[in-house]
Specification:
Strand 1 (68-73), helix 2 and strand 2 (98-103) form a beta-alpha-beta unit. It contains 19 helices and 10 strands. The longest helix has 17 residues, at 433-449. It has helices spanning 31-39, 80-92, 106-116, 133-138, 146-150, 169-172, 196-201, 210-222, 239-250, 252-259, 269-283, 296-304, 317-320, 367-377, 380-390, 407-419, 428-431, 433-449, 455-471, and strands at residues 68-73, 98-103, 122-124, 183-195, 226-228, 308-314, 331-334, 350-359, 393-394, 423-424. Strands 1, 2, 3, 4, 5, 6, 7, 8, 9 and 10 form a 10-stranded mixed beta sheet that branches. The protein has 481 residues and is α/β, with parallel strands linked by helices.
Length: 481
């Protein structure tokens, strides 16, 4: 969800992720509205720009006089990194002009243009008004980005773009088969964020088992600090730590079954154990009072001010909360706490994946231009610029050398190193946006953490939502390959 925060997320994208990510408004545009609109196939469309000549410096054959339009989600990552990349595009193609804009209202701004067949050439499809990825792919609204991935990288003609990306980025953009519909630009680390200074003041280390978590929260409570807070108005932030915990306890196959909408997937003992653990935080009074009424900014601000110790979030939080995090906060992130030594995966198992999903519409006037802008952004210079300015990694596998890493970013890199191969990547937030956010997140997990559902009731309700989605023939379904 992310900048993909309440949004993606989406992550990832961003968030999420998925995520991931992001100054957001309430979810106000029904996903079904976009579904039915896309189903109509759009209007008459627009004439495609004439292709340019392919050369070593122009491997995608961009028309060097055609305008390129780029619409960015204006969230936690801001827009300066994209504006800088646009300047590179205009330097490389001096006869052209990029029409650049940024908005938080992606769906309400762009849905009418998809309907009319006149979408922009490149879109950062993130935020609370993120367009449903599953719908976009299922209704053939997106261009296949394989030509971009097979093009020479911006820095090294001997390397294809795909060979410069972090593991899993290409696969995340695939829904079924070989086409790649989405390029997740940010690389988001999801987990439990905290102040190392605050933890040290309790004379505690980050808890690895749930008994240890409850002990730390009790200590914090005695000192007038809540154990946890979260974006109560957007409780689909809770899965940023809850889902990888489920994977840690029960194994990757539990998360895969959930993503695949398999019958009774939510009734797995690992889900039950993790739901009961989180519910215990509510029951014992370890959640900051009033949290269900807080949005992501309010909860992050309360946490930054020391009112709560732990916050489930994505790595965009360091940039998004930069104006409220104290200088000596010593920001850190950890993989989620497990139940005990019987967990299937080791402590350190974390959710990390691509966030900030960029797409090129199938009916874009200048698709080659949109892909070229992404090729520039996936170069080392643009990647370093993004990391330095917004405190987040990119899909480019590198781009941190020579940069003085901020505390949160440094901690995120360390968490990835600790995880090694124990990285999970739940796909609900990009396969089934409405199911994940509004139903599972708000109506299920959110209601449980507000004390209005027991864990058993929440599991039953969420399994019902998943079963409905599995039977809905108007929705394209996806499965782990």
């Amino acid at each position: 969800m992310g900048s993909t925060s309440a949004e993606n997320h989406t992550g990832v994208g961003r968030r999420d992720l998925i995520k991931r990510s992001a100054a957001l408004g309430l979810i106000s545009v029904p996903a079904m509205g976009f579904l039915s609109a896309c189903a109509s196939g759009g209007g008459s469309g627009q004439d495609k720009a004439e292709a340019g000549k392919k050369t070593e410096k122009n491997p995608l054959g961009v028309n060097d006089t055609a305008q390129m339009e780029f619409v960015l989600f204006d969230g936690g990552f801001g827009k300066e990194y994209a504006e800088d990349a646009v300047k590179v595009y205009e330097r490389d193609f001096p006869k052209t002009k990029v029409k650049f804009s940024a908005t938080q209202k992606i769906q309400s701004t762009l849905q009418p243009r998809f309907n009319q067949g006149t979408p922009p050439d490149l879109i950062d499809n993130s935020g609370a008004e993120q367009m449903d990825m599953g719908v976009l792919v299922g209704k053939n609204q997106l261009a296949d980005l394989t030509p971009l991935l097979d093009a020479p990288s911006y820095d090294d003609p001997a390397k294809k773009v795909r060979d410069t990306l972090r593991p899993g980025i290409v696969e995340m953009g695939q829904f079924d088969g070989k086409p790649v519909w989405i390029l997740y630009y940010a690389y988001t680390v999801y987990g439990v964020w905290y102040s190392q200074k605050a933890l040290d003041s309790l004379d505690e280390r980050y808890p690895e088992t749930w008994d240890e978590m409850l002990k730390v929260c009790e200590k914090a409570k005695k000192k007038g600090m809540a154990g946890w807070t979260y974006a109560g108005k957007y409780p689909y932030y809770l899965p940023f730590s809850l889902y990888p915990m489920i994977g840690k306890v029960g194994g990757r196959e539990v998360l895969d079954a959930i993503d695949n909408l398999e019958p009774n997937a939510w009734k797995h003992p690992a889900v039950k154990a993790c739901f009961e653990a989180y519910y215990e935080l509510y029951r014992k009074g370890y959640v900051l009072k009033g949290t269900p009424g807080l949005d992501h900014i309010q909860s992050q601000t309360a946490w930054a001010k020391g009112k709560a110790l732990f916050l489930p979030n994505g790595s965009w939080v360091e940039n998004e909360s930069a104006n409220v995090i104290p200088q000596d906060f010593d920001l850190a992130v950890s993989a989620p706490t497990g139940i005990d030594g019987s967990d299937k995966m080791p402590f350190g198992t974390i959710w990390a994946s691509g966030g900030e999903p960029f797409v090129v519409p199938a009916k874009a006037k200048n698709a080659e231009g949109g892909m070229e802008q992404l090729r520039i952004m996936l170069g080392e210079a643009s990647s370093k610029n993004f990391t330095a300015k917004v405190k987040s990694l990119t899909a480019y596998n590198g781009g941190t050398s020579g940069i003085d890493l901020t505390p949160g970013l440094k901690s995120g890199v360390a968490a990835l190193e600790k995880a090694g191969s124990n990285v999970v990547n739940p796909r609900l937030q990009d396969w089934y946006v409405q199911l994940q956010k509004e139903k599972i997140g708000v109506s299920g997990i959110g209601e449980m953490m507000a004390g209005r559902l027991t864990p058993a009731e929440a599991v039953k309700k969420i399994q019902g939502f998943a079963d409905e989605a599995a039977k809905d023939t108007s929705v394209k379904h996806y499965k782990h390959q």
